[in-house]
Amino acid sequence: MTQTFADRHIGPDDHEFARILAAIGIGSADELAAAALPAGIRDTDPAAGLPAPGTEHEVLAELAALAESNHIATSMIGLGYYDTLTPPVLVRNLLENPAWYTAYTPYQPEISQGRLEALLNFQTMVTDLTGTDVANASMLDEATAAAEAMTLLRRVNRRAPARLVVDHDLFPQTRTVLATRAEPLGIEIVEADLAGDGLPDGEFFGVIVQVPGASGRIVDWSAMIAAAHERGALVAAGADLLALTLITPPGEQGADACFGTTQRFGVPMGFGGPHAGYLAVRADYARQLPGRLVGVSKDADGARAYRLALQTREQHIRREKATSNICTAQVLLAIVAGMYACYHGANGLRSIARRVHGHATELATALGAALVHDSYFDTVLARVPGQAETVVAKAAARGVNLWRVDDDHVAVACDEATTADHVALVLDAFGIAPAEPAGTAVENRTSEFLTHPAFTRYHTETAMVRYLRALSDKDIALDRSMIPLGSCTMKLNATAEMEPITWPGFARLHPYAPAADTPGLRRVIHDLERWLAEITGYDSVSLQPNAGSQGEYAGLLAIRRYHLDRGDTRRDTCLIPSSAHGTNAASAAMAGLRVEVVKCRANGDVDLDDLRAKIADHAERLACIMITYPSTHGVYEKEVAELCALVHDAGGQVYVDGANLNALVGLARPGRFGGDVSHLNLHKTFCIPHGGGGPGVGPVAVRSHLTPYLPGDPLIPGSHAVSAAEFGSASILPITWAYIRMMGADGLRRATLTAIASANYLARRLGEYYPVLYTGDNDMVAHECILDLREITKRTGVTVDDVAKRLADYGFHAPTMSFPVAGTLMVEPTESENLEELDAFTEAMIAIRREIDRVGAGDWPAEDNPLRNAPHTAASLVREWDHPYSREVAVYPLGLAHDRPKVWPAVRRIDGAFGDRNLVCTCPPLEAYAD
After folding, report:
1. Counting Cβ atoms within 10 Å, is residue 227 exposed (0-12), middle (13-18) or buried (19+)?
2. What is the pLDDT of residues 741-795, one digit of tens each?
3. CA 877 – CA 541 distance, rounded (Å)
4. How many domains does the chain have?
5. 787 pairs with which residues across the strands?
6. H helices within 302-409, ranges in order?
7. Quick one: average pLDDT of 519-530?
8. Is the pLDDT of residue 927 over 60?
9. What is the mean pLDDT of residues 539-566?
10. Could you say which DSSP state residue 484 is in?
11. In the predicted model, is pLDDT for residue 437 greater than 90?
């Protein structure tokens, strides 16, 4: 019998699935759906409108035809997106390597040292090039990084009026996203020609400029920055990192923050993303940085170790008071950019920059009097009165896309892929002859950069391959083990889904290229919008948000604008259950909404009595409620339809967080059981890989009355865009397209039912050893379960941290710790793990429980046992051994004969408090290597 793609994607085969069902006392898949889901929300024929499933080779052929239909013109549009030459060693050994792209966020740092080191390289690269002190581990794109820079300046300068000055030469998409973010926060944006007119009158908290500007112009901003500081304002600069290899960086000119993109460092344009943005600041503001920050600490043996510092899961702690709603990053792309810098080094990057600038100089010299700015790096602006459309059309006919600024101006951007032939084609389109290039004074940087060994050791392919392998060997990703993280859905990222994303037909498209150049990728986008609407029961979908947090934000903005357009200006209250994801509250605050918490009952369900009371208290001010379904506690709440009705009756909207959609696809649709809007996590339910903590896509789906309020084209002022490209991270959308196309409606339903069955299987097998905290009707959980260790900890002193670290000795990544309830482990097996892997995890957890019992019985001291000392490294075995358990128990807890491949953690347990007290967020100094 020929196996379908669904058979390959879903771990348990029919025989194993039957055994799983038997273990939980269920007779069939249909009986499982009836037992788990409330009858009132189950759909009779969900997702029936999807195409019939195709095989891997059929679907790859379809995608190849779509990629072929796109026209790969030579892009000289610029505006923050540039063609780049990704070193093949990075394509094969990093971007296309499951050891890198299937990893999760490094919340378990002892088994994430490889990608943490790679991210530290990224942070060091950014700080070196920008002349700042501290950079975070990446942002979502340049425009959202600019928005985060704006709110950071506001946080540290609260006493100044809520006015921001923005230079008129900022990228247009950045201006749009800034305006979207500023409006609900009550920030007034004042646009000015800062180079020509200086600072405007009045007081303001911040200033934002671009280096070089959108027009290509380079300005020395040091005098303006000094003047802004004298007037009590802070300054952030959007800076091109390649240009900063030649020109004085903004940090050295006095800027308080720098932001931008690292796209041109080896990351394809991909029609808009994903790309790693960056945000860097002076040391004074390090603790205000949003997102993730990798820091240097030490482990239990005093060895250097890396971990996430300060902001780790900040949203779950500070909720609406968090610095940002961004709880993710663009880790995979940040690592590509960082390794691009490692591979080329300072001299290599300077060489690339000089070549780029040299081509721009050839254009500028030939343009002569038509040249608008005589100080530039890669982009020249030409004045062609009334002829812009003609010039752009002539260039397009020659296979080159230029940027029409207005009727009288054309911009031409050079990049790493630009050649002398491209320059000749552009000059021909302008109707001018080449000229001998004049000298240039653009190269004025005097400070050194990228001097650390990470940027001097790996310039040969041999060295780079070995470095990448050494780093990946320090990590646990899905290519080595199941990652049973509750709420995070670490499912298979199939090779057939991943293969197309590096094809030139998808990867080399500029997001602002003419629509006629991109019919194939637009077909993928259009199909996905329809299919996701069908799967969720909504009417419209926007694929623009490039993370789940941004999908939340876009959905809440839609609700807010809907109420405002109806004249309901007082509706500013968002009800959020106490169990909700922390990003919910942070997103609500960003959208200008007041957060009111609704209590949960002892069984984890939303307390409808408290909900009724809150609705009564805030009736005229109620904007919406945000719920997660199934709940954050991993249970199908049977009163969800009643909850939605209560909010609707009070004039509010219902936001259903799609984080747990993997428990609904093919069985129930939030747009049909009461939701008005949901965001979806394509990096969870729909197989885009987590990539070590990014990339991701967070589409927002709405019912028809909210359709007019979806995010728009960022090149159109006032469009309420939430990211820099109209379709967000478009180059990875073929992953989800391929998954849905290969699974079909029946395959998607099978996947959901298998995920539910597997979670219940683990709950039944482990419930005897660790109490399952919440269950729904029929003693069922959804696609995840929460194991309660609080009584165990009270009785023995063994904590969830101890169990999580000990699992590394057994070769497993830990479940989610202490979320949504402190002292618990949330386990989600996903449908992709077969019965053998489920049983291996169960066996490890049961063995750990026996170890806990030995601690409780006094066989091992509470402060010196295999759990408290976990994880154990190979190096720890050759040191003096004075523990009351053997070396074999430490590192082969199931015995030497156990056939599971051994995972050796790179470091022992890390001292997080030390790292936060002694904040170091760049590569350790040279003397550390001498030590």
Report:
1. middle
2. 999 999 999 999 999 999 999 999 999 999 999 999 899 999 999 999 999 999 9
3. 55
4. 1
5. 772, 825
6. 314-318, 331-367, 388-397
7. 98
8. no
9. 96
10. -
11. no
On whether residue 553 sits in a domain, the answer given is yes
In the three-class reduction of DSSP (H, G, I as helix; E, B as strand; rest coil), residue 454 is classed as helix
For the beta carbon of residue 368, count every other beta carbon within 10 angstroms. 10
- Cα–Cα separations (whole angstroms), residue 429 to 358, 384, 433, 461, 847: 19, 12, 10, 40, 72
Q: Looking at the domain assignment, is residue 539 inside a domain? A: yes
Identify whether 830 is part of a domain: no
d(CA 197, CA 224): 11
* Radius of gyration over every alpha carbon of the chain, rounded to an integer in angstroms: 27
- Please give the Cα distance from 849 to 403 (Å, whole number): 64
Q: How far is the CA of 147 from the CAs of 236, 315, 868, in angstroms?
A: 11, 18, 43
**H or E element in which residue 690 lies:** none
Nearest to 260 by CA among 277, 242, 246, 245: 277
Q: Residue 187 corresponds to which tokens in the numbers above?
A: 């920030």
pLDDT tens string 372-392: 999 999 999 999 999 999 999
CATH number at residue 533: 3.40.640.10
Distance of CA 573 to the CA centre of its chain: 28
The verdict on pTM exceeding 0.90 is yes
Placement of tokens 């997080």 in the chain: 912
- Rounded Cα–Cα distance for residues 647 and 615 (Å): 7
Half-sphere exposure of residue 809: CA atoms within 13 angstroms, side-chain side: 32
State the DSSP code for 847: H
Q: Which uninterrupted H or E stretch holds 643?
A: helix 640-649
Task: Note whether residue 643 is domain-resident.
Answer: yes
Helix, strand or coil, per DSSP, at residue 594: strand
Domain extent for 678:
518-743
pLDDT per residue over 41-96, tens digit each? 999 888 788 999 999 999 999 999 999 999 999 999 999 999 999 999 999 999 99
Half-sphere exposure of 405 (CA within 13 A, CB side): 21
Confidence of residue 926 (pLDDT cuts 50, 70, 90): very low
Write phi, then psi, for 485 (nearest 5 degrees): -80, 115
